[in-house]
């Protein structure tokens, strides 16, 4: 997907010149991006700012027509925007609080959505009851939208976006800007919705808590191309070539510096960063040379792994 972006120099003269003589440059937002997602999977779609995630989501949701490439979702070409397709998907960007018609009650808004998406009454009642239970909406359904708190509007907005029970959710930063409790509500809801309905979810988020609690599979996109596609626990071996070794010893003045990079030392408790391949040898040497009270080997946190991945990808880009 290539965007054609107008360019102009700074200043008034350049602004006037740009009116009569437009210049453009191409921005390649997405290229070499190939992936498949099986029904029911919950997939984290990650990448640095500007990597191409939102552009991809918009293409999949039928908002953007890509300049080249082939996409099929549920057997449909998204940008044809067939009604049948639009009723099967939802694109939610940010937390999307309810609020288009503040005079209406929440239930009125749901009824309007029912008409828009042509939802049969029994399905509507079942979906609304399920969503109300998951998002604790019973007490707000009869209230005017304008009288709701932001948290209530956010929960109602989420339910409104899903009351037609889409099979595919494209979630673009659903917890951005939310406080800890609201983010947890949304996160828990997404997991429960997916489990209850069998929906397929593609989720972008810069929150590693979202990714860790929801996404067994990760697709890492960089500069519009796939940099990793696999299970979450495989990401560390792909991008973080080290593990953490935590050791407590009872010796006087122990020196563990030869066995790894010392990240932290608190008296006789050491935290070392050790190359993955060197971990067996380093730990067996430590065990044979010191009076070890405790030793554990840990994977780096997802945040560290992603951070290392982004650094590595930036280095590769700068070098190439
Ligand atoms: N409407 C647009 N016109 C021109 N360029 C655009 C447009 N939208 C996005 N871009 C460019 O395309 C690239 C990919 O943008 P995109 O929004 O898909 O990234 P992203 O991965 O979602 O980033 P973020 O994490 O910051 O939201 C960026 O270089 C961006 O500047």
Care to describe what's here?
With 320 residues, this protein is α/β, with parallel strands linked by helices. The chain has three domains: 1-30, no CATH class; 32-231, P-loop containing nucleotide triphosphate hydrolases (Rossmann fold), CATH 3.40.50; 236-319, Alpha-Beta Plaits (2-Layer Sandwich), CATH 3.30.70. 37% of the residues lie in helices and 23% in strands. It has eleven helices and twelve strands. It has helices at residues 12-20, 53-60, 83-86, 106-116, 121-135, 150-162, 180-197, 208-214, 235-239, 279-289, 302-319; strands at residues 2-7, 23-28, 42-46, 89-93, 168-172, 200-204, 217-222, 225-231, 242-249, 261-266, 269-275, 292-298. The strands form three sheets. A six-stranded mixed sheet has the order 4-5-6-3-7-8, with helices on both faces. A four-stranded antiparallel sheet has the order 10-11-9-12, with helices on one face. A hairpin with a 2-residue loop joins strand 7 (217-222) and strand 8. Helix 5 (121-135) packs antiparallel against helix 6 (150-162). The longest helix is centred in the middle third of the chain and has 18 residues, at 180-197. It is globular, with a radius of gyration of 25 Å. The mean pLDDT is 92. Adenosine-5'-triphosphate (ATP) binds next to strand 1 and helix 2.
